[in-house]
Amino acid sequence: MIKDNSEKQKFLEANFLLQSDIAVSLYHEYAKDLPIIDYHNHLSPKEIYENKNFVNITHAWLNGDHYKWRAMRANGISEDYITGDATDKQKFLKWAETVPHTMRNPLYHWTHLELQRYFGITNLLRPSTADEIYNNSSALLQEESYSPKGLLKKMNVELVCTTDHPTDSLFYHKENLNEDDQLKLLPTFRPDKFLNITHSDFLIYLHKLESIIDSEINSFDKLLEALSSRIDFFDALGCRLSDHGLSQLFIENKNQISLDKILLKRKSLELVDEEEAQNFQMVLLYELGKLYHSKSWSMQLHLGAIRNNNSRLMRSIGADVGADSIGDYDQARGLSFFLDKLDNENKLSKTILYNLNPRDNEVFATMAGNFNDGSMAGKIQWGSAWWFLDQKDGMEKQINTLSNMGLLSRFLGMLTDSRSFLSFTRHEYFRRILCNIIGQDVSDGLLPDDVAWLGQMVQNICYNNAKDYFDFDNDQTSNV
Questions:
Q1: Of 299, 302, 300, 463, nearest to 388 (Cα)?
Q2: Across residues 213-232, what is the average pLDDT?
Q3: Rounded to whole angstroms, how far apart are CA atoms 359 and 357?
Q4: What is the mean pLDDT of residues 317-338?
Q5: Which of 6, 93, 169, 427 is the most buried (most CB within 10 A)?
Q6: Mean pLDDT throughout 391-396?
Q7: Per-residue confidence (pLDDT) for residue 297, from 0 to 100
Q8: Please, which pLDDT band fits residue 3 given cuts at 50, 70 and 90?
Q9: 253 and 302 in contact (C-beta within 8 Å)?
Q10: Nearest to 458 by CA among 16, 27, 18
């Protein structure tokens, strides 16, 4: 136990991040052993269902991890060792060379938490330990218990919601459902490619959608009808959430050119201007919002990223390779307009708002509070600290702002938002930070020393609130 705040803690010891006795008690007695509901991530449904072991630690840990890629580039590592043709071992050694330079970056904590929790490796990763860690972790990854599902089981994950395009067949979700696997694998409906009509992939996915419905989509109503049929399909396979990754929301221009003409302009490869694109996005999002409400789905809005800033990397490697950053968009007016429009018609579904720019913390926290209607606790949520804010400082600020402007006790807690099967220590990280904040308030006399109630509150935030909010146990799935 911790006698006072002056007592030094060892790195990643049992009481890591827990700076008071009450924090220690809250974490170890109430939070630590709870299952994980990861309601937003980018894991591969194919990798989960097929459950094939990773070839080595590089495949499990470095492939696709743009957090690590950014750090390696900042450390002067050649792209050959990041996304290039270097061997898996060479790439790992370059990551090991980078890790000591990530001190005070969350990657340093995440890296060593993952090595400890998944592989029992307590040595610090650095060039002198890299060979041994590479060999030992890669050997363990060949064992049955270290398959993708085995890795999830190690972290007590009971449910994951992947992020899926409307044209996805959901084959692997369906097969997993038919097998009645202990791990619940559910899809999330993400229609971004249709909302951004000027995106280079818009026509590609429109043609895919036309193939699925076996009909040409030559009007806005036809597009909405096709997407509605896909929502039905997703819903039948247990989908309970939609998700949208947009820069910002806009106020519709009532005098805008018709939506049918905008769609036909795009199909004819004519230029769709910015105002037309914004109007198309907002009307389509509004119509989708009404459909989500009819299904009792939760709607997630991830707002504020400016993506693929580096055109050279975009040309040579592609999208989503670690060249995204925080955008300085106007968020309040469009978000207020959109939520209010749905609320006015009693069509606003459960909604989770995520901001990427920390300057918008108070904006999003107070915006969520505007549209709670008493129909349930925490209907409109300000979501967990996202992406660049998903670290100790960002989590603390999110928790403190939510506490000041909303009800922390009704918060849905953590998610990974990750493509990595080794990222689920993020939930532990969050739980420790949460318990420490509450424990510090007790130590400072700001909260009563009521461990039973505070422990229940911690358990609700870490698990129970999400379980109740999404109602995943209400199994309405059917064979599709």
A1: 302
A2: 97
A3: 5
A4: 93
A5: 427
A6: 97
A7: 98
A8: very low
A9: no
A10: 27
Among the listed residues 353, 427, 403, 351, the one whose alpha carbon sits nearest the alpha carbon of residue 383: 353
> Does the structure show a pLDDT above 70 at 2?
no
Nearest to 390 by CA among 67, 58, 11: 67
Closest of 227, 250, 432 to residue 338, by C-alpha: 250
Spatial separation of the C-alpha atoms in residues 262 and 268, rounded to whole Å: 10
Residues 6+ apart with CB under 8 A from 48: 148, 149, 152, 160, 162, 172, 176, 183, 185
427, 416 Cβ separation under 8 angstroms: yes
Q: Answer yes or no: are the C-beta atoms of 20 and 436 closer than 8 Å.
A: yes
Question: Which of 27-36, 57-66, 249-258 is least confident?
Answer: 249-258
**Distance between CA atoms of residues 275 and 413, nearest Å:** 36
How many CB atoms neighbour CB 389 within 10 A? 20
Query: How do beta strands 350-355 and 380-382 pair?
Result: parallel
Mean pLDDT of 347-362: 98
Contact 52, 147 (CB under 8 A): yes
Contacts of 75 (CB under 8 A, 6+ apart): 97, 98, 101
Question: Three-state DSSP class for 288?
Answer: helix
Give the three-class secondary structure for 315.
helix
Kindly tell me if the per-residue pLDDT of 479 is higher than 70.
no
Are 37 and 158 a contacting pair, CB within 8 Å?
yes
DSSP states of 143-189: SGGGSHHHHHHHTTEEEEE--B-TT---HHHHHHHHTT-SSEEE--B
Any idea what DSSP says for residue 80? G
pLDDT tens profile 364-383: 999 999 999 999 999 999 99
Q: State how far the Cα of 168 lies from the Cα of 295, in Å rounded to an integer.
A: 19
Cβ-in-10-Å burial (0-12, 13-18, 19+) of 429 comes to: buried
Mean pLDDT for 172-180 is: 88
Helix, strand or coil, per DSSP, at residue 214: coil
Q: For residue 421, what pLDDT is reported?
A: 96
Residue 12: φ, ψ to 5°: 60, 30
CA-to-CA distance for 140 and 57, rounded, in angstroms? 9
Distance CA 294, CA 308 (A): 35
Dmax (CA) of the chain? 71
* Domains of the chain with CATH codes: 53-145 (1.10.2020.10), 155-470 (3.20.20.140)
pTM summary value: 0.95
AA identity, residue 169: S
